[in-house]
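dumping this here so i dont lose it
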């Protein structure tokens, strides 16, 4: 399984599981439901600063495919952010935003960093201000979310269990698939009964090229007996006559295979190899099924999960800690589900999300950790403009191309 397929699989499984876990944030029974909702609102609207730590892990068929650790301190517009990817060789991303300046590429070994004025390009923690004198629309937004939650959660509201913990209460909920709210069930039905969820539905003719540029080179050789000058791909736009010839060539090649495929199936699919050989299928879905069953390769941006089916949520479990002061202090969500690809292969997925929230309105952000560090100046390589005058042959005709590019001195 390629890295891209693994990523796509994780995304689909996580999306399916979160379609259920998302309801946990806004569901419960009686006081539990109202308490968790009010605590979420208070944590957003009555917070000047907070420290957040979290970890998200995901497994597919027992193998860990996702493991990201997050830590953040926020105090108004000043922030500290740390993200560690434990799957990708412990790759870490660290940054500060302090007094309008962003500090990035922090090198603790050499004690250097880079910085720039944030302007409008960085995230800053600016909590909502419900009930403020200014009408910013926050109260209306909260009411809309509450109405939507009340409407969509249905019987899931009746599953909350309260347990006293140190400094507050824990509200816990477990849902199996038959207990999910109607909205989550509809999402699963959308996956299981249609292909619309991926935008990969059939009903139209499709041409899939393994490598279109290589196919063009092959078609060029067949037409004029010469290898195609690969500079055409980069420079055809520098000469309008060459550009027109190239676009017409592309159009003719595409039309050729469309006509071939439509002779067999009006709404089918044709898969064209780099050497120009092809196979025609009744649909895109059938193309996936046949090629996978025969062990034939797919193009790089294709995945058997483009047509998911039989998505199931085995369970969703949530724990929410609410402090005596009415703030969310801990969120722990776990879920397990499964999904099949177009060929019927089943993937079991598990996900756990754990976040803790500390030091509400007491968190302080500074850059004392960078004391003694120096700013690393960006090394600018001297460049110059070079002008080129070249002749490119394409389909037996020669075209004069004049262009320029920046190169190192």
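and the seq i came up w/
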């Amino acid at each position: 399984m390629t890295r891209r397929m693994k990523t796509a699989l994780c995304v689909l499984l996580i999306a399916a599981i979160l379609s259920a876990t998302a309801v946990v944030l806004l569901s419960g029974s009686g006081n539990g439901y109202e308490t968790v909702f009010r605590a979420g609102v208070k944590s957003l609207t009555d917070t000047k600063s907070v420290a957040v730590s979290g970890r998200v892990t995901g497994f597919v068929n027992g193998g860990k495919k996702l493991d990201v650790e997050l830590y953040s301190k926020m105090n108004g517009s000043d922030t500290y952010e740390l993200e560690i990817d434990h799957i990708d060789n412990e790759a870490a991303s660290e940054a500060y935003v302090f007094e309008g300046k962003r500090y990035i590429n922090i090198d603790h070994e050499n004690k250097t960093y880079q910085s720039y004025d944030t302007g409008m390009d960085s995230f800053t923690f600016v909590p909502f201000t419900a009930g403020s004198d200014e009408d910013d629309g926050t109260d209306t937004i909260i009411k809309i979310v509450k109405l939507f939650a009340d409407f969509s959660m249905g019987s899931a509201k009746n599953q909350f269990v309260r347990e006293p913990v140190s400094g507050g209460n824990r509200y816990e909920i477990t849902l199996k698939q038959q207990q999910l709210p109607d909205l989550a069930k509809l999402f699963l039905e959308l996956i299981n009964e249609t292909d619309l969820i991926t935008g990969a539905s059939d009903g139209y003719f499709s041409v899939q090229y393994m490598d279109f540029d290589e196919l063009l080179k092959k078609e060029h050789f067949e037409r004029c007996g010469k290898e195609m000058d690969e500079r055409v791909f980069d420079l055809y736009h520098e000469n309008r006559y060459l550009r027109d010839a190239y676009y017409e060539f592309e159009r003719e090649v595409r039309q050729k295979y469309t006509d071939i495929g439509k002779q067999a199936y009006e709404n089918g699919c044709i898969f064209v190899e780099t050497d120009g050989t092809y196979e025609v299928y009744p649909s895109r879905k059938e193309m996936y099924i046949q090629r996978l069953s025969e062990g034939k390769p797919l193009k790089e941006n294709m995945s058997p999960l483009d047509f998911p089916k039989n998505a199931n949520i085995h369970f969703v479990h949530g724990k929410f800690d609410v402090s005596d002061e009415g703030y969310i202090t801990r969120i722990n969500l776990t879920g397990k589900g499964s999904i099949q690809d177009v060929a019927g292969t089943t993937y079991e997925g598990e996900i756990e999300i754990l976040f803790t929230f500390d030091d509400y309105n007491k968190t302080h952000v500074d850059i004392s950790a960078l004391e003694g560090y120096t700013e690393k100046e960006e090394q600018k390589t001297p460049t110059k403009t070079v002008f080129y005058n070249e002749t490119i042959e394409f389909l037996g005709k020669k075209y004069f191309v004049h262009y320029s590019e920046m190169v190192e001195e």
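Residues 27 and 373 are 48 Å apart (CA to CA).
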